[in-house]
Amino acid sequence: MTKKVLNNIIAAVKTAKYFAISPDSTPDISHTDQLTFIVRFVDSSGKPVERFIKFIPLSGHDGVTMMNVVLDTLLERDLSIMGCRSQSYGNASNMSAPFNFFSASTHRWSIIKSTIHEDVLKSLSTRRWSAQHDATHALKDSFAEIRSALIQIAENEDQTATTRSEAPSLASKLEDFELALLCVLWECILERLNATKKTLQETEI
Fold first, then answer.
1. Which pTM value belongs to this model?
2. CA-to-CA distance for 81 and 112, rounded, in angstroms?
3. d(CA 105, CA 124)
4. How far apart are CA 19 and CA 133, in angstroms?
5. 120 in Cβ contact with 145 (< 8 Å)
6. Mind listing the pLDDT tens digit for each residue in 42-67?
7. Residue 107 Cα distances to 44, 66, 116, 173, 195, angstroms
8. 20 has which bridge partners?
9. Integer CA distances (angstroms), 111 to 20, 22, 56, 65, 149, in order
10. Is 117 left (phi over 0), alpha (psi -120 to 50) or beta?
């Protein structure tokens, strides 16, 4: 019955195409910290609805852990992050903590994406070759756009002081020849690793 209800919810989200997510954590009666994963969307009748997806035991509250939980949950339910148009977190301060700009903070990801005006960036996963390739490929193909977006963020007074101070530093890193070279090389290597992984996972192998 649980599976049937959940399948109906996911089908409705896919029909709506665009959705919002609201992960929030709280300890249960056994003192296990669990994340409630909620999706919000507009149903076929035009009514905004909110639906519970699952409880997820948490191993940490840092930005990297939260990001991986979100991406893994969406992947598990066959929902694309590209359809996500809004995010709210009970641990919002953790999601905007001073982690690596490109691999950890969902808040900063949304800032860069909104500045570029195009869905060209990909989140970096440490567990999936395909995600690593997609992230590196997007960085290589959008190098100039990302640098321009970072400069705009640095000059945007609506952003926090921390975000504005980090943006120029990251923009300067994109001017480093070694970084550019490694990006090109890794994209080439990861493309082949990803292709090999997909081949090895075929049912005929």
1. 0.41
2. 15
3. 11
4. 26
5. yes
6. 988 888 999 998 888 776 666 677 78
7. 30, 12, 15, 20, 31
8. 40, 86
9. 16, 18, 27, 20, 9
10. left
Q: Which two tokens stand for residue 78?
A: 């066959």
Identify the residue with better confidence: 14 or 102: 14
- For residue 31, pLDDT over 80 is answered with no
Q: Is the dihedral of CA 130, 133, 136, 137 positive or negative?
A: negative
Q: Give the separation between CA 138 and CA 74, rounded to whole angstroms.
A: 20
Taking a C-beta distance cutoff of 8 angstroms, is the pair 65, 58 a contact?
yes
Angle at which helices 161-173 and 106-116 pack, to 10 degrees?
Answer: 70
8-state DSSP, 82:
G
Distance CA(106)–CA(144), nearest Å, equals 21
- State which H helix or E strand residue 52 sits in: strand 48-57
How does strand 33-42 pair with strand 84-87?
unpaired
Segment (H or E) for 33: strand 33-42
- Is residue 171 within 8 Å of 151, Cβ to Cβ? yes
Question: Does residue 195 carry a pLDDT above 50?
Answer: yes
